[in-house]
Prior knowledge:
The protein is α+β, with helices and mostly antiparallel strands.
Amino acid sequence: MPAKSINDIVALCKRRGFIFTGSEIYGGLGGAYDYGPYGIEMMRNIRNAWWNAMIYSRNDIEGLDASVITNRLMWKYSGHEGSFSDPLVECKKCGARMRQDKMKDPTKCDNCGSTDITEPRAYQLMMGLSIGATADGEINAYLRPETATTTYVNFKNVLDAKPHKLPFGIAQIGKSFRNEISPRGFVFRMREFEQAEMQYFVKPDEDEQYFEYWKKTRIDWWINVLGIPAEKLRFQPHEKLAHYAKAAGDIEYKFPDGFDEVEGIHNRQDFDLGSHTKGQSEFKLAAKVMENKDSTTKLSYSDAQTGENFIPYVIETAMGTNRAMLTVMLEAYEEEDLGDGKTRTVLKLKPWLAPVKAAVIPLVRNVPEIVDMSNKIVDDLRKLGIGKIELENSGNIGKNYRRHDEIGTPLCITVDHQTLEDGTVTMRHRDSMEQERIKVDDIVKKVLEIVNQ
């Protein structure tokens, strides 16, 4: 039986060290979470899968890791400083604050049902900073609310360092910060979150074909790489487009409480590079942009064949890695009835996604030869560089198996007295719970076959 609600995943994450409440010993902080020993491993696997698809498997996309602390002017000309806000209302009866556009009924408080609520006011989503000894508390910088804009302002830097013909892209994975009114859904909506975004720069007359290309490419990645069933995914076009967008939509996953966004695909036309470029009047911009008198660089592209100098269009793919991990865990979670009143919880993750690739378990801890053999097997597996290999030297064998079922470990290798006699170990498979005796010399080959699936 799959997870009935996100609460099943919340409990598992705390119990098994995937995700903890941030600042928990001081009462926590809304929308802030800490990733534990297994959470960071799983996030790393998701990042690596995305990076491999975007960078290592292609010739046309370069990587970037931009600063999270940013010049205020960047967000002035992107439009964030003036318009990146949510409509906030407050209940005069109970004091609850809510986003008006997310309320069940905009005329009634979601918390107490009172109709005595304030008029909406703009609530700034960016987190301002006061940097420098002479700042005197005034906001003169921001923590970035997205990675995309830090990519646009590096367009020329990347192009000069690594010349490309159009189309080409710039990708980065990193933290973003938003002063959310009401974080919700565990790690679904947070104040500090991680994004994996790619900006693909194209000729103005080729934008529509590449929008369709990236829509299909990204949906295929969710299905074929992360293993999300196609019937649990859909592409939902935006009913109302942002002022800069020519087309936009979201890849949505069917969460226990309904479909919701996990990745956005946007045709941003020439708004972004046009907003930040020097000499805007020299270019025939399709998008309406704020006049920029502060930029020092022309963010244009010169076509060597035609001699034309123009501002490229942008096709954006924007995935939340926190949401991706939550999606994968929800899909992999199973509660199985083993009969006789026994059950087990198991994460049926793809082996390469599992936070622990294999656990080696000495059946008894007071026999030096068994412990030494276990350590040797662990050392041999760690030399493969395939991820975390654990020496599980606590509790009884049944409890060890159950713990590794819950964290998704695909293989458990048990060293026992028979190992010392005939050089074989027990290899237990997570999904089927089947056990087989294999030779110690065959462990590396077997593990490689399975964890690369």
